[in-house]
Amino acid sequence: MAYRNAQQATIEEAGEYDDADYEEYIEEDDEYVEDEDDEDDDESDEDEEEFDGQIEEVEEDSEEEEAQSLPNRAAGTQPGATAWSGIATLPEPTQRSFHELLQQLKKDNRHSMTVLLLGKSMMGKTSTANSLFNESVAPILSYQQETMRPQMFKRTAAGFELSVIDTPGLLEGDSVNVATLNAIAQVLKDKQVDVVLYLDRLDFYRVEKTDKEIMTAITNTLGPKIWRNTIIGLTHGKAIPPQGFFTDRQEDYVQSRVSTLRKAMRAAGAKKDASLPIAFIENSSHCAVNSAGEKVIGPNKDRRWLPELMAQIVSVAQSVPAYKYDSSVSKKRNPNKRRRWLIPLLLVAQLALKKYVIDRVLEDDGITGDQYGSFAPDHIKEERQRIKQERAHAKARRKAEKEKLAQQADKKKAQARSQISAAGEKAKRTVQQALPGADSDDSSSDSDSDSSSDNESSSSSDSE
After folding, report:
1. Model's pTM, two decimal places?
2. In the chain, % of residues over pLDDT 70
């Protein structure tokens, strides 16, 4: 019941745990953690032993796919498509559930679906991708647990293509890995994401400060609309609270874990239209199985988590429009790029505040008194009058200097104009002297002027 209630309910508000609640069970918790660490060591050893065989099988499959690529292309299969061979090796009930869900999507005229995996390191993103395909699409090494860059894996079955984008952890040390988020944004530029699986662990008790910073960074980089397509995937779904801690109230523990995650996501930017459903995941090889070979979780070991996860994914893909990355949203939410136009105004305001307020207050403080006390009123009045006169004299000096500089500038301009005109006259004379007919032209012009003057004088005498 705890898992079903957590998966169906949408909790708007919830309180976080008090640290004092945990102190009573520190000793029990330590014993539980030691037992869990031993189990994890056994799991890592088994994974190392199984890994060599998985690599060989992947290589053999790839060779077979190359051999079959030409017939597939001739039959009309896309060159980049890879057959979803893992679906045929799932238990019969799981296969049937998967095919029914894919048929639902095809009835809606959907022939592809893309799932994006997000979360911190060691949350089980790559293992979840392998579980969804039931193939080792992304090998997990014991000494290299982190995906180095975003990777997309595609598989086709019955004319339907499922794509899963595996991403690196969003936390680097104690801070958000902004470079990883930017790399994810670049990958999503030309893609549509139907479902986002944000993975965290069920057996973590609280939402840390770094978790909230990661959620806020996701909103700032990818936009708040991404939360509409988000499913909260709680890995280590088979985990139960430590003995003596919520043992009799396991439903309360699960509800509280779900509530704190939803509350943090809404505080980071998830709107009310984001339902943020829950899916429980258990990728461990130690997970219990039912009689049909399906992995089951829950107090009664009756929850088939893989078909339920796929059903949750299909439900979100059918009910919510696909997410599209918008770079403009990221720029608007980037605090380094918002309201830059205020910077010059703030600088001017600071300068004005210093000149007209702070400087005068400091000056007046020196007039009215010193460390030994206040000055006499007459002395203060005289000092203020003196400072006022000094300011008037300083203003007059600045005005005179300004006028003097203006006169000097005008004088230099006039000298420059006279020099330019003198140089022009000199150049004109030089050109006239250099021309061969310049003198004759001058003499002829002089003679013409003399003759014209003589004619004028004779005409004037005749008239008399």
Report:
1. 0.59
2. 70
